[in-house]
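Q: Protein A?
A:
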Amino acid sequence: MKQALTWLGHEFKKMLPAAVFFLVTFHMIAITEAMVMDANGLTVAKASTATVAALLVAKAILVVDSLSIARHFDRIIWHNIIWRTGLFYLVTLLFHMLEKLASVFLRPGTDTFAVELASEWVSWQHFAVVQMWLVVLISLFTLLRETIQLVGHDQIVRLITQERPT
């Protein structure tokens, strides 16, 4: 039991930076959508969806990191950033597509799989805009994470908190 709790705590600590980053950014996207699309504010359902999506992406990043394919381009940092961004994005795209399809087929009265139904209920322009944001956010996250790993957490904190030389 103690080993399980230790492992769980370790996994949580590894997932925390990604979870916090994506919680903040996904909620910013949800608030922006709420303001632009229907001006009714952020609903509990939209906030819950953003939270669950952020946690799924954070866990997906942990899973991708554990795969040997993720370390394919470890030697050169910018290759690694581009490679991992692509891998993280593909997993995120898969989750986003599954979420959109589930929202279409879990509607009341839907009992058959119909491509026409999915194209009717999903705004593909909205989907494309969200995908553009995801690429930017995942790129930023990967760049920040790889920089912190390269320079070191303590050095980054020292650089950010010190006064500028005059």
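Q: Protein B?
A:
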Amino acid sequence: MPTDIHTAFGQFRLAASEFCRTVDSASALDRVELLSRIYEILPRLIHQGVALPALSWSDSDTQKEIKHTRMREPEWGRLYELLKDKLEDWDLYWQVFDPTKDSEAIRGSLADDIADIYRDVKEGLDVHNPNLALRQDTICSWRVLYYSHWGQHAINALYTIHFLLESARS
């Protein structure tokens, strides 16, 4: 099992790091280049999120160390505003929140989607020299956040970016 934990941790960390580096470079990119890069990375990130093994939290105190790496609200706000300014009229889109239950469209925000994905996947990336318990708990955190939060944002963003890039390239 440790090999599976190390492999899952490494593969997700690689995709998450690539996503975060791309978002970190947003100020230097135009919106088409930024969204093109995110469009390429998101399927891999989603795939790695789905591939994370269902593990139990360790008995150690490592959850505090993982939470310590979580992006704070002011930092998230600055990222959101940067992305919103970068995307301009491409930021807002229409969606159905839960297509299995809802029939009315609501507004979504790509800036919010990207900033939320960033915050959730970055958690745990900055933990130095993760031992087995820390890797296990980081995987648990990434998996819980995928299914409860950032996975929905990733799917919505990918779908929206598809149409934005299609119209930009036409």
